[in-house]
What we know:
By secondary structure, the protein is α/β, with parallel strands linked by helices. Helices cover 42% and strands 15% of the residues. Helix 11 packs across helix 17.
Amino acid sequence: EMSQRKESIVMLPFMAQGHIIPFLALALQLDQTKKYTITFVNTSLNIKKLRPSIPANSSIHLLEIPFDSSVYGLPPGTENTDSLPYHLIANFLEASLSLKPAFRKIISDHVEEQKGHPPFCVITDMFFGWCAEIAHEFGAFHAIFSGCGGFGFACYYSLWLNLPHQNNLSDEFTLPDFPEASTIHVTQLAENLKEANGKDLFSVCLQSMLPECTNADGILLNTVEELDRVGLGYFRRKTGKPVWPIGPVLLSNRSQDQAAITPDLCKHWLDTKPAGSVLYISFGSQNVISASQMMELAMALEACGKHFIWVVRPPVGFDINMEFKAKEWLPEGFEERMEHSKRGLLVRKWAPQVEILSHKSVSAFLSHCGWNSVLESLSNGVPLVGWPLAAEQFYNVKLLEEHIGVCLEVARGKSCEVRQEDIVKKIMLVMDETEKGNAMRRKAREVRDMILDAVQYENDHKGSSVKAMDEFLDAASLMREGNKWAADR
Ligand code: UDP
């Protein structure tokens, strides 16, 4: 037969936007090779949300997995973490374990449909290491994929497994199995980590889920070898499995219906500013700062005299999706003054971030340092002013500042006291022609070139991320060949 049958890949991310989005980006990247049919599995609500993002001509199929959260103390019909109160996230994590039989059935049905052929590969979330057993039962290759960077994920993994701060009386400690990360300070712990005692539901779940990553045949990370060797080394050592840095895997187009400003308008505004003169400020899609921090930041922006684009969202304590009330949350007349002087642009809710970061007028990014934002900034050679707020963002900043030298931390967390003078000082240090600023810009350009090289594929040259992807697909093929050979006998 001339037309070659496409290999099949099954993907299952954890049911949270921060996990689904990198999986979607990976699915779209794999789809571009035209070699695979991809079955993207999730709860029905998430599948509905995903449908518009799947191009009509793609070989990506969305498949619903039944999920009943009601027995885990969750509100009826909970299918993702979107509007789940913080104290129920652990219950949701626990409830996700109940997907096992349904996922097994999906794989088993799939094998039956394919006349006994197992999927070429099953790719699941870092919280779903338990899928390895199911994939292997049916003879499929199993990989974990995480949208995190190696270093940040390694710190997070080690912290949860060891809870080292629990036996520590001082404010600083080192990670027992990751000393290369050097000291961690208690202010660098996410709230749920701070509260963890090893017996709480979150700890119990993560401490059983994370080590199951070791059962996978390999781990895919959204990062670049040359940038992230220390973190990659941790997982290689810890799991004894291949770890493939295939990043950056990013969605090229994330414009949303809720976008408050068109990319054109933004570009137009930026076009009127001199090269390298604008600070871009955003805290990502899920995190906000407190009302008093927002006030200090606004005063700092006014005092430092720099051009800026700021994606504003309601402060801590308000519904993240409610209307932004500049009159209540910013200094009096701030928005009008910024508009009148054309100094600053306030964008409500959602900005075309990738377009902004790639504009030559932008010279620094004040960011919560979520990993996607980090990759987007560095891909454009833009140094960062770090303000981590949650999860592994604290360790992303640590990597960027201490190991790479492209970031300066300005504040830490949603409840720290931050003074406008300090913010001004740090913004100036990064944006002005200071020794530090120049060094950071130089380094950021180097990193940009490094990232460009990693994804480069030309005749005789394959970048590290291209190679890592090849190695992953080869490993899966090898398993496939092994199975064929076994079947032939
Ligand atoms: N993003 C955007 N516009 C916004 C805010 C966020 O396009 O106003 C995009 C951003 O480009 C990135 C993602 O949303 O791709 C945020 O991911 P990240 O890992 O940085 O942080 P998270 O939102 O998961 O905390």
